[in-house]
Amino acid sequence: MKTLFRKELRENLKIAVPAGLLLSALAVSWGQGGNGLVQRGCLMSGSFLLSSFGVALGWFQIQNEKPRDLWAFLVHRPITRTEIFLAKIAAGLVLYSLAGGLPLIGYILWVRFPGHVAAPFEWGMVMPFAAVFLLGIIWYFAGMLTSLRPARWYGSRCLGLVAALVVHVITGVLLGLLWTWQFHVAFLIVAAIFAIAIWGSFQSDGAYRGQPLPGKLALSLVFTFAGSAVVLVGLVVLRLLIPRDQSWSQYEVTTDGNVYRVTSRGELPPTITDLAGTPLKDPKTGREMEYEEFEQLVRRGQQVSVEIGPRPKLTGDLNAPRDHFFSRWRELDGVIWHWDRHGQLVGYNMLTKRFVGTLAPDQPAGGSAAPAEGFLHPQLPDSRALAPRTLVTRRALYLVDVRHRATRVIFRAADEDEIGGAKDVSAQATVVVTREAIQMLTAEGKPMWRVPFEPGYVGSKQIDVFLLEPPGQYALWIHPPRLLSPKLGGKVRRQMLWISGEQVVKREELPRLDGSRPGDDRFDKVLSFLVPPEFPFIKPLLFRLALEHVPIQWDLVRIGFAGGVLSAVAGWLLGRRYSFTPRARVGWALFLLFSGFPGLLAFLSVQEWPARVPCPSCKRLRVVDREQCEHCHAAFAPAEKAGTELFAPLETNAAV
Amino acid sequence: MSDQPVIQTRGLTRYFGPKPAVYELNLAVPRGSVFAFLGRNGSGKSTTIRMLLGLLAPSRGGGTILGFDIRRLPPEARARIGYLTEEHQLYGWMNARDCGEFQSRFYPRWSEKIFQGVIDHFGLKPEARVKDLSRGERAGLSLALTLAPDPELLILDDPALGLDPVARRALVESMIYLTRRSDRTIFFSTHDLADIERVADYVAVLDHSVLRACCPVEAFRNEVRQVRLRFAGPPPKLPPLPGLLQATRTESGMRLVFVRYNEAIERSLNTLGPDQIEVSAVSLEDALISYLGERGEKSFILSEAEAPL
Fold first, then answer.
1. Interatomic CA distance for residues A421 and A390, integer angstroms
2. What pLDDT shows up at residue B300?
3. What is the pTM of this model?
4. Of A28, A498, A636, B63, which one is least surrounded by beta carbons within 10 A?
5. How far is B5 from chain A (nearest CA, A)?
6. CA separation for the pair A218, A214 (Å, rounded)
């Protein structure tokens, strides 16, 4: 095995060396920017290169020996197929780790040591890169599996790559969660399934038949996973191709505080109506106002995110891992100040890129210990022209003076209250949202107005604040809490408040907008029918990740189950047609019951369907890989005699 | 030494789609023999060999090689079997010495002497890279790699394919004279019929996926006979004749090749009213060509012959 391992190392250097050089060049280019370990761009470019390297390495490790006679030369060694598999995988992973891992380690160390990056570093930041590295291993396995599978049908051959692509897309979407250990465990499980599928394929030269059961199961799982993606993409493409009503509607607030509903239907221009449904007229022409003109009147709300009580781990931008570790707050006098996840400001000299100091609540500058109660994740002002002034803890709002490295409490919540979020909405005003109320404070922390939450809106995650004309007029949108109980779902609507001076002058619940487009239900039903039947149960869990409550839709469960049953029946009939053993037939039917159409796609792809020829005895079609006819149990007929047969006894054994 | 056949198959069958590449093959190869496996292109020789070595799964049937099930050949069985492929594909980036070192690590009975002997026989330089070798030189290197582990059974899949006559002769000589041993079995497929007479003890013939002959070489030669018929005028149409392999017409005669020629056939021929019947032996090469060609009245030559002259 060592010999084969060394041969594999030497043989695949031609792929590993260029890949290593490319990755090193990429890492050098990352060095020109900030902390690339948690930057989306660096992670994406790194993952692209590592994945490409992985798939090329896996593919060529098999393709090098794919010519029939060279493959025979390889496998006709006095070692087991498992040893050949292990030697190849070990060499591949060593090459991948050296060529892919060394540049990454170099870059990590470069970021780690002071004077290189004007941003905080902690070892946890390595986790997203580690995940991207693991992602490349999944591509490596996918490349090897694809190369190993017989090319009877290229579509089925590429399903391994499709499965890796799905993992990659999920990773790209959830990049901000890669620092969690659960993702690494998930990666390892997926990689293990791929590895078992490859190991199984090695036992049978890539064929399904002849594989040990774990290999068969792993291969079917990989292909089912890919089959789900194929079905999903097919449906989405179909949906895009079929013309449908592209209607949507939304609320807009004008500078004078009026609310309008903007509705767009297909290709028609959007219509603007007030809450009573009366179209908005242009005062100059008396005609219905066009949207472009209306936009000039619109005042955008400033969004304040609110988080009261225990904070879920999976918050922030799912796309940006940096959001979890640190966030740029402001730059002043050549120092860049980052908020870090320990709740303090960390300053770095932008020229020397060296650490300057920290600033924490109730703590003088330069302290190194993390504060007991830190600043909450800052919400930067919407306007780039406006420099952030304040930060909040759960208890107090602080005016932060980074020039003098000092903090001062300008507002403190009542003992039983808790701050959920705050934002500087203008040079002179900050909105603070607590468990009990929404309030606007001056730059010195004096209250301008205070609005208590109404029952039903406590726990709201988002408040939109509108600064209206003339000054001193405000409007608020209080969004209903997203994680409502199913009983309340749909009953609590967006609340709008108008404030003048210190008083609420009007309060109104906005009618619910019809968010779902016509055809969405139908799409959901078709989707549920074609994806694995478990999907209607998984969907609410996925939405819960985004803190939205979606109940289990039992009609979709029924449809999904029908898809599973239909797939199981199709599998059973195919098994009968091709004379599977009763055990295989039951096994596949059960598998298809739980995997639905994607499983059926996998079933059709992995099997080497035997030819069927007429039985000379009963004349019905019988499979060629059974000794006896499945219908009449007759054996195959001996070859027809040509009359020129010439058999004679051999020395030790007669020819039979 | 065991009397069990080194290779034995029972109903070995392989389909590619609905077409059988090998059909119901029942074969037994005696220990210590040199066994020639013949057939035209596409007759199923390589498919059979690949199934014997567990490189291709049979559609049905099975067999044993050195007593091991061909579907599950363990490493210890592979260590006892030398396999030479027809394309002689090796790792192009290695040189001859690297190839030898690579191969030697897998085989405890590796003989550097045999390896060096065959290499020298082919005039190969140890530092020559495989990708720079000619086909004949690659064949020599492949043979050296196959022989040096001192295998008990040597399976050669048309090893001389595509070689020039000199290289082919060198390969066959090395293959046979360097390795022939009473306890070693050599099973080889070939297109070069001249080799068979020189080296083979037994011959088996696959015709359109079906085994049609399996016997000692001498028996094969003895069982194939050529019959010349002379007529006063144009030869008459032939009746169906058992064992007819080939028929060639001339203006006033016919040349027929039979397997298992006997008195019954001669009586049938006499009914045609020939002026003369002359029965003679044929060389093994001619016998094999007749056997491997299209049969009886269906043969191209016969169709031509039946047309008016």
1. 11
2. 40
3. 0.84
4. A28
5. 7
6. 6
